[in-house]
Structure formats: C-alpha cells, structure tokens
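Exam review. A common question shows you a sequence with its structure tokens and asks you to describe the fold in words. Practice with the pair below. Do the first one on your own.
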Amino acid sequence: MSYIYEMHCHTGCTSRCGRVAPEEIVRLYRENGYSGIVVTDHYSPLTFIPNWNPQSQIDFYLEGYRRMKAAAGQGFTVLLGMELRHYASGNDYLIYGVTEEFLYHAGNLMMCGVKKMRKFCDENGFLLYQAHPFRPYITRVGLKYLDGIEVFNGKCSSGENEKAYAWAEKSGKLMVSGSDFHTVKHLARGGIITEKMIESNDDLVQILKNKEFSIVKNN
C-alpha cells in the first residue's frame, strides 16, 4: 500500500497569505487520496505583528496546525513543520521535525540566520531544506547549511523546478516536493509517496533521510 503526504502547506488562520481554513484543507486532501499533511505555516515578519516579538505569539502560530490536527482525527496524519524566513531576506527554508516545545523556547528564529538555524537543526534532529530555490528573488545558500532542497514546488514554473532538481542531484542533497498550498488552486500538486505510514515527525525524518519515497509532480 502507498501513502501520499503533502510537505508544504499553509493555513488560512496562521499564514496571512493563506486562504483556506485548516478543517477544509483536511477534507480536500482526504478527497484527493492523501494520507497526511505537514503544516509549514510561514514563520516570517509578515506572520507576526509586531514582528519583533514572535515568542509571545506562538499559540497564534500553532493555531493552523492544532486546528488541522483536531479536524483530522484518526487515519490522517498532521505534523508540525515550518517555513522560516529571516529578517531582511527573501529566502525561505522548510524545516521538518519541529516541535511545539522547541518553538516555545527557541526565541526569535527570524533573527538567527541560516548558520544558527543549522546549529538548531543539528541539536534537535530537524531537517533543513531551501524552499523554491530558483524563484527570482531567492539567493541560494551554501550547501553546507542544507540537508536538502525543494526540487518540486507547485507554485513554481517547470524551469525553476528543473533547475532545483539539477542542483540537488549534482550536490547529492536530499530532495522534497510540496504543493506550496495557499488556495484551492494549489491543491495536491506536490508531496511524497511512501510505502510506509508516517505517524510522527520521527517517522518523517527517517523516511526523508533514508530516501524511502518518490516525488509527486502535478502542475
């Protein structure tokens, strides 16, 4: 049996660019044959207002994830991830394995920069991917900071995705695919297909590390 998981998804109640409620996202993905979603709401200056004090707003940040998890119930996996953007940067990073406890105690992650975020990931067993690395405003970071690269993004052009795939293939970095879901038109464009059920962030990290998946590309 195969399982399909969305790896890049924004909820309408947390990401200010999102337009769909978490409960509706679960329904839509279930109807499209998915087995679960990693919620990667934006952890960025546009999410937190005032954006200098995100630590006081972690419950707000977690609302989309928590509502989606509650709506999913049994038989559909909802995991916490993150799409992080630092101050004065257009780069986005997908982080897998994130925990609520980490977010409550990590301080302002928008200030840390990719070097410090690499350290956090190493200390906590998270995986760090550069999201949509060939969009026009993105600067590709040193490979030493990355576990992987988003090689297919449902909102990117085929050319941008092809360049991302080539970069990951040449570098030997891990790969991932995601729809970058914000609205219904982005539904089920990306994700990973596994032969093993993913029920926890530990499961997810191991499957990504071991490359025990294939990539969804629907654009």
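Now try the second one, then compare your answer with the model answer below.
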Amino acid sequence: MTDNLQGIGMTSQRTRERMVQRLVAQGLRNQKILDVMRNTPRHLFMDDALASRAYEDTALPISYGQTISQPYIVARMTELLLEKGPRQRVLEVGTGSGYQTAILSPLVDYIYTVERIAPLQKKAKDILWGLKLRNISYHYGDGSWGWPEQAPFDGILVTAAPMEIPEPLLQQLTVGGVMVIPAGREGQQYLYRVVRGEGGCEVEAFDAVSFVPLLSGRV
C-alpha cells in the first residue's frame, strides 16, 4: 500500500488538489474537511480499473452492487454532521468502500461502523488499517437497527437511503446529537439533518441526492 499511497498521474496529489478546488467552488468552506479530503487517497478504495477516475466528482461502482459516493456528497455530509459542533461517538451506517469512514476518522473521536455485506467490510477494514486509522470499531449487521450495544451516539451518518428515517436510529441518538441521512424513494431522495432535542427532533432537508437503498438483513 505504501507504494500506491501517493498515486501517480490521475491518482496523484496534484489531481487530489484539483478535486479540493472543485469542492471549494461548490461551496465547501470547512478547512479541516478540505484538508482531510486532500490527504485521503480515494483511489485506494476502488478497483484498479476505475482508479484513474477516483478524483472525478461522481459516484462510482464498487463490489456487490454498491457505490462509492461522489467527493462532494462525502464532504457535504461530513460538513452537515460537524456544523453544529464536534462529535465524540459517531455511528456510521454502511461502511461500504470505507472512504467516508476514512474522511470521518481524523475529524471525530471515535467511529462505530456497521455493514451488512461481510466481504465488503473486510476489504474496507484492511484499507483503513493500512492507512493507520485506529479509532474505528466494525460491526457486521443490519444497519437499519444501528448498533444498540454501543449506543448512544452524538452523531450518526447513514450512507444508504431508507424510505423513511428509521426509528431505531433516532432512539440511539443523544439529546443534542446530529444525524445526517438520505431518505426517500429512488428519484425523490433528499439529504436530511436531524437534531434531537429534549422535546423531539428538528429535521432539515438539504440537497437532492441519489443513494443505493438501505436494505435489511445481512449478506
């Protein structure tokens, strides 16, 4: 991994810098997030055949019918999660490629990440370990149920779209906690931020998005 870390040509540091400049042009202003995006080798999280496209602003296919989200969406979701203050214990629903996990890792105290596709999570874990990201615990399970044994969380980030926000995830959010989640049917999905208060939840809608559905069960 060391030899491939910096990348060359279309996976080089210069290409990552152009990606960051696009994010700034798209309105991203959090310098800590931009720095992490700049320093994280996205090409490591996808198959070699697609590595040359790693820093395009587009979602790309990975194994098992899943996708790696476009850089803007990864940065945007991270921004919405952290905008109301730092997060100590963050649940990530859907490890996927591990790229979103890698972006969150330097920005929060600890991540609990859940994935329903065992080999996909194993691959992500190997990459994240190789990047020396150690503040992460992994769970193979149905993400729509969260991770009750580790709850509560002051941050939850969901990387697949349910039709509606799952009640079990709301119950695992602390008062003052923030959840960022896409939701809705295909073609009508939006990114939502949920802030749990003493008397209920405040829900805000943001960007129109397109995510794979949040499925139940394990594979």
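Model answer, second protein: The chain has a mean pLDDT of 93. Strands lie at 60-61, 67-68, 89-93, 110-115, 136-140, 153-158, 173-183, 189-197, 200-209. Full marks require stating both points clearly.
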